[in-house]
Amino acid sequence: MKCPFCGELENKVIDSRLNKDGDVIRRRRECIACRRRFTTYEHIEEIPIMIVKKDGRRENFSREKVRTGIQKACEKRDISMNMIEEFLDELERDLRETGEKEIPSHIVGEKIMKKLHKLDDVAYVRFASVYREFKDVNDFVSELKRLLSNEQQTQ
């Protein structure tokens, strides 16, 4: 690490501390040459997740875009913002753990629906209706029948 005062590369770490979230390390350093102290911050460089859309376009994964969709699906349901944030954390962690730099949008949509199904059936159906582009009531009925048959099989 280059000293910001004299440009010397030799320095020693005097103190290291994690931030409260545990994702950044704050280091106090002392330059060997000029003996002045400075602070550096070390964090993991996040590689952006690219989402490959149905039409082949690519765009960065947008946590905010997913949050908006989830909030709409969960509107007037007994689901707190903390639960939604945990949902988003888990989803993003799952996507990163695939190790893929590009993930097709249909995989992201299916992961969201699977997690929503565990969280709340009504929110799941609301999200599915938009995601799967339900055209009419028959699409809703088909999805509800599938949902109910899955419920009966698990009981």
Structure description:
- The protein has 155 residues and is an alpha+beta fold.
- The chain folds into two domains: 11-43; 50-154.
- It contains five helices and six strands; from the N terminus they run βββββααβααα.
- Strand 4 and strand 5 form a beta hairpin.
- The mean pLDDT is 89.
Nutshell version of this structure?
By secondary structure, the chain is α+β, with helices and mostly antiparallel strands. It has helices at 63-73, 81-97, 105-119, 121-131, 137-154; strands spanning 11-18, 24-31, 37-43, 50-52, 58-60, 102-104.
Topology:
Elements lengths: L10 E8 L5 E8 L5 E7 L6 E3 L5 E3 L2 H11 L7 H17 L4 E3 H15 L1 H11 L5 H18 L1
Parallel strand pairs: 4-6
Antiparallel strand pairs: 1-2, 2-3, 4-5
Helix pairs in contact: 1-2, 1-4, 3-4, 4-5
